[in-house]
Every structure is written in structure tokens, then in C-alpha cells.
């Protein structure tokens, strides 16, 4: 059966046929690393992680590229503010932080959130600042082809000429005349107020470190241009799927497409956009201030439960966070886990604390699951198929039909893996728990020695043990029920 995806550009669901048989090139827009990730960002990454996993499940070799926008107005503004006299530090923004330090710090926060929630790392994760040369080449091509020009007011900017590209507006089905101007520069320097910046001339207020030489004067790249240049470098001038959040369709994706197609590239064959995570109906967004971070959710639920919540809706629909959302997701995950644990125990004699590994590569998803996923990644229907299999398995276990139960268990494992809900994402947590347990045994032995030394009034020995532990970052506190230890914060 063929896979069908909704293509935002053509506004229809159509058969997916890769440009090169057996291979898929996927680019999706990553974060502008100007602040802490919120769960909306992670939902976008989970949606494209599920897409990747499904394409791989169907036998495709997928090259995934997700960029890091590490130079941008907002990053520079946040950094500049941190040097201001009335700046007040908080848990997210530190005083006197250079733009690149701030960007890299948040890039790592994003990476850690993705890792924790089972978003597999992309094949390539290019940073905008590492691709200035490619951006210059693209601007050059656009100027040569008559689609870009240096600012008329000598600001050092370079603009894309929207009137020179008749298909401008075709991604979002808009008529140029109905569009608003691009607010990125003084319209007096532009041929048309809708023209947008490919290159931004250096301003006296910009830090020297955020400025690169160019044929049009020193400056830095415009946001839209970054993605066009990076896609081409890693996936070529024609590739299969371009993704990102629905909020990026205009202007970002419209402009990316215009730049690349005006340069003569075929660009993306499919455009796929994930819906927004909302809170009380409003887009979760840094600028609105209604964000919930992955860390906050992980205080309330395990990574798999958070992943289930963020991945359960159809990727194109809006996902509203409600206080009871995580409890509902938790109950669903527990139903799945309860069945798998029972099946492992009854059929394979594996107990909850046994160490075991199971070869899953020949396990297959059910037909209902497969056709749901092939139909534009219909995850809600696929999850219904998964839970139906859990019910069938539980019924079989109750009736003592271990063969049917085993088949259901294998299918459930294959389906949870396909959705990235397998428990591998908790292995990080398990490894920490194992290390913690090992440390506990070692420290307890030291503390027992220390107690014996104290009982024998051998103070030198008792102090020496305390010093050894302190040097290892372990703080010992004596209490009525004996010594307690903790790691120094
Ligand atoms: N609330 C949300 N729900 C789903 N996806 C989102 C949400 N907010 C951002 N995204 C997506 O996350 C990816 C990275 O986004 P980017 O860094 O550009 O964030 P942003 O839209 O500027 O976020 P914010 O509005 O909070 O500043 C993009 O694909 C974007 O569409
Ligand atoms: Zn982009």
C-alpha cells in the first residue's frame, strides 16, 4: 500500500513517491536558539521524528536535516539586553552573555529536551553561522538572475525582489497585492515593501562578532536565506519533504521557497506542517509567555508519558494542553505497559526486575496500524489500533491462549517502537538509577567503616573517611538514625 501525505502547497493529500527510489531527504526547521525550549517546539520535532520512523519502518533510507538558527535579531537583542544597566538576571537569562554563548547554551537545552523525549538526532544538524559562504553564493545567484538587489538607501542590506518572481505567494495561496510589507527594514530602501532581507548590513549597535564580510558590505544573513542555503548543501536542489510548524508557512517558508526556486532549484516536493500546541486555545509561544517547558512536564510525568501526550494527536491538528492531559496519557501508557509486562511474565517468564533483551526486528505492526500511518500519519487511528491489540492480547491472556497473546505482544512492541514510545527512551533514566544504586552501596560501606572508627574513638580514621567522601563531592550529615549522604549540589 502506498503512503499518502497532505501537501500544504498543493493543499491535497497525495501519494508519496520519493525522488530517488528507496531514499528520502527530509528537512525541517529547527529552533531559533534564543530561549528555553517549550513543549510546542518539541511537539514539532516529535511529529517529524514519527514521520522519520514511519518512513524507515517502510524500508526507506532517510536523511534528516534540522537546522539551528544561531544568529538572529532576537538572539542579538537578548544578548544586548543582558549587558544593560537595568538588566535583572533570572533562571533563563544571565548577565553579560555574548550572543554566541547564549545561543549555544540554548542549543544544548534543545538537544537535551529532544534526547530525553526520544527525538532521534538528525543525520545532520547545521548551524546557520557555519554556512555564510553558501548563503553568499545563493545571494549572488539571485542578483545575477535579477531576483535580488542591494538596498536602495545604501544600508548594506540585500533584498529579494518579490515582484520579479511570479510564483511568490503560491505556497500559502496568497496574492502579492494582498500581502503586508516585510517589517525587517526601512521600506524606503526597497523596491516593494514586501521585499525581504537576504542580507542585513552591519549596524553600529551590532556586535563586531556578529558581522561577516560580504561583496555587499559587512553584515549578517536574513533568517529565511539560512534555511535555503543549508537545505541545498545537504539535500541538493531538489528534495522530498520540507517540514516545520504551521506558524512558519508565512513568511518563512514562502520566502525560503521563493529564494530557492528563483535561483533555479526545484526545492521541496512535499511541504508538511505540524499544528500548534496551544494553551487555553492560544498558541504556546515565548512572546505570549504561556509556555510550558519539557522540564516542567517531566516533573509531572515520565518521558514516555510526555512523548505520548505530545505525539498522540494528528500532526496537523492543534494540541491543547489541559491540566488532566498528562494523567490521561499516563493511563494509556500504563494500559500498554501492563499488558506487555503480563505477557512477558506469563509467556516468557520474564519478571519486572529481570534483565532481558528481545530481538524485535521481525516484529510487525498490525494492518490497521499500517494503513492508519500510511494515510498521512494518522496517529490517533494508529493508537486506536494499538490499544485494540492490547485488548485482544489481554483477552487471550485471560483465556490462557498464549499463542495469540504472544502475537499481540509482538505487534504492540512493533507499534510502540514505530511511534517512538518504546522504553529505550527511558534507558538514560535507568542508567542513572543503576549508577545511583552502585554509589549507594559504596558510600554505605564507607559510612559503616566510619561508624566503626567512631565507636573505637579513632577520630583520625573517621575524619579521613569524611574527607575522602567530601573530595568526591559527597556530603555526610549525622542524624539520630545514623549518617545520611547526598551529592553536593
Ligand atoms: N506552540 C507550538 N506548537 C507547535 N510547534 C511549534 C510551536 N511553537 C513553535 N513551533 C515550531 O517549532 C519549530 C522551531 O521554532 P522557532 O524556534 O522558530 O520558534 P518560534 O515559533 O519562534 O517559537 P516562539 O513563538 O515560542 O518564539 C518550528 O518548526 C515552529 O513552527
Ligand atoms: Zn527554515
Low-confidence stretches: 427-431
Largest sheet data: 4 strands, parallel
- Quickly give the CATH architecture of the largest domain: 3-Layer(aba) Sandwich
Compute the number of structural domains. 3
CATH class of the largest domain: Alpha Beta
Q: Helix tally?
A: 14
Shape: flat
Alpha-carbon distance between the two ends: 55 Å
Q: What small molecules does the structure contain?
A: adenosine-5'-triphosphate, zinc ion
Q: Taking strands numbered 1, 2, ... along the chain, how are they ordered across the largest sheet?
A: 4-3-9-10
Enzyme class: ligase
Cofactor: Zn(2+)
GO molecular function, one term: cysteine-tRNA ligase activity
Family: Belongs to the class-I aminoacyl-tRNA synthetase family.
What does this structure look like?
This protein is α/β, with parallel strands linked by helices and 489 residues long. The chain contains 14 helices and 15 strands. It starts with a strand and ends with a strand. Bound molecules: adenosine-5'-triphosphate and zinc ion. The site of zinc ion has 5 residues, from helix 6. The site of adenosine-5'-triphosphate has 20 residues, from helix 1 and strand 9. It catalyses: tRNA(Cys) + L-cysteine + ATP = L-cysteinyl-tRNA(Cys) + AMP + diphosphate. It is found in: Cytoplasm. Its EC number is 6.1.1.16. It comes from Paeniglutamicibacter kerguelensis.
Amino acid at each position: 500500500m502506498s503512503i499518502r501525505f497532505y501537501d500544504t502547497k498543493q493543499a491535497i493529500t497525495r501519494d508519496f513517491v520519493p525522488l530517488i527510489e528507496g531514499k528520502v531527504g527530509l528537512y525541517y526547521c529547527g529552533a531559533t536558539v534564543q530561549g528555553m525550549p517549550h513543549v510546542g517546539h518539541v511537539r514539532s520535532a516529535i511529529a517529524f521524528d514519527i514521520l522519520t520512523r514511519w518512513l524507515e519502518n517502510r524500508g526507506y533510507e532517510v536523511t534528516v536535516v534540522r537546522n539551528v538558527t544561531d544568529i538572529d535579531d532576537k538572539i542579538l537583542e537578548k544578548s544586548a539586553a543582558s549587558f544593560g544597566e537595568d538588566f535583572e538576571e533570572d533562571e533563563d537569562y544571565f548577565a553579560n552573555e555574548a550572543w554566541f554563548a547564549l545561543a549555544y547554551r540554548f542549543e544544548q537545552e534543545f538537544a537535551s529536551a529532544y534526547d530525553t523525549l526520544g527525538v532521534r538526532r538528525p543525520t545532520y544538524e547545521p548551524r546557520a553561522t557555519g554556512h555564510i559562504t553558501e548563503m553568499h553564493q545563493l545571494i549572488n545567484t539571485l542578483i545575477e538572475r535579477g531576483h535580488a538587489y542591494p538596498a536602495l538607501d545604501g544600508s548594506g542590506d540585500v533584498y529579494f525582489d518579490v515582484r520579479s518572481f511570479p510564483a511568490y505567494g503560491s505556497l500559502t495561496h496568497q496574492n502579492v497585492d494582498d500581502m503586508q510589507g516585510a517589517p525587517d527594514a526601512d521600506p524606503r530602501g526597497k523596491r516593494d515593501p514586501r521585499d525581504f532581507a537576504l542580507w542585513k548590513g552591519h549596524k553600529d549597535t551590532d556586535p563586531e562578532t556578529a558581522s561577516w564580510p560580504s561583496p555587499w558590505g559587512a553584515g549578517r544573513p536574513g533568517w529565511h536565506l539560512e534555511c535555503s542555503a543549508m537545505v541545498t548543501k545537504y539535500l541538493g536542489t531538489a528534495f522530498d519533504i520540507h517540514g516545520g510548524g504551521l506558524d512558519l508557512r508565512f513568511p518563512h517558508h514562502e520566502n525560503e521557497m521563493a529564494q530557492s526556486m528563483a535561483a533555479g532549484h526545484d526545492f521541496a516536493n512535499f511541504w508538511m506542517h505540524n499544528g500548534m500546541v496551544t494553551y487555553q486555545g492560544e498558541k504556546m509561544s515565548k512572546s505570549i509567555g504561556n509556555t510550558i517547558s519539557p522540564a516542567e512536564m517531566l516533573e509531572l510525568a515520565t518521558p514516555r508519558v510526555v512523548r505520548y501526550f505530545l505525539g498522540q494527536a494528528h500532526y496537523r491538528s492543534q494540541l491543547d494542553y489541559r491540566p488532566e492531559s498528562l494523567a490521561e496519557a499516563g493511563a494509556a501508557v500504563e494500559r500498554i505497559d501492563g499488558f506487555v509486562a503480563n505477557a512477558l511474565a506469563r509467556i516468557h517468564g520474564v519478571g519486572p526486575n529481570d534483565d532481558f533483551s528481545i530481538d524485535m526486528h521481525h516484529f510487525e505492526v498490525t494492518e490497521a496500524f499500517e494503513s492508519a500511518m500510511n494515510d498521512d500519519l494518522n496517529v490517533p487511528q494508529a493508537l486506536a489500533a494499538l490499544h485494540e491489540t492490547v485488548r485482544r492480547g489481554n483477552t487471550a491472556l485471560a483465556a490462557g491462549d498464549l499463542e495469540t497473546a504472544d502475537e499481540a505482544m509482538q505487534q504492540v512492541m512493533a507499534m510502540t517502537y514505530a511511534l517512538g514510545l518504546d522504553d529505550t527512551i527511558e534507558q538514560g533514566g535507568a542508567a542513572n538509577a543503576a549508577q545511583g544504586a552502585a554509589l549507594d552501596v559504596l558510600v554505605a560501606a564507607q559510612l559503616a567503616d566510619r561508624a566503626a572508627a567512631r565507636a573505637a574513638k579513632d577520630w583520625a580514621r573517621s575524619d579521613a573517611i569524611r574527607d575522602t567522601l567530601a573530595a568526591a563531592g559527597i556530603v555526610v550529615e549525622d542524624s539520630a538514625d545514623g549518617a545520611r549522604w547526598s551529592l553536593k549540589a
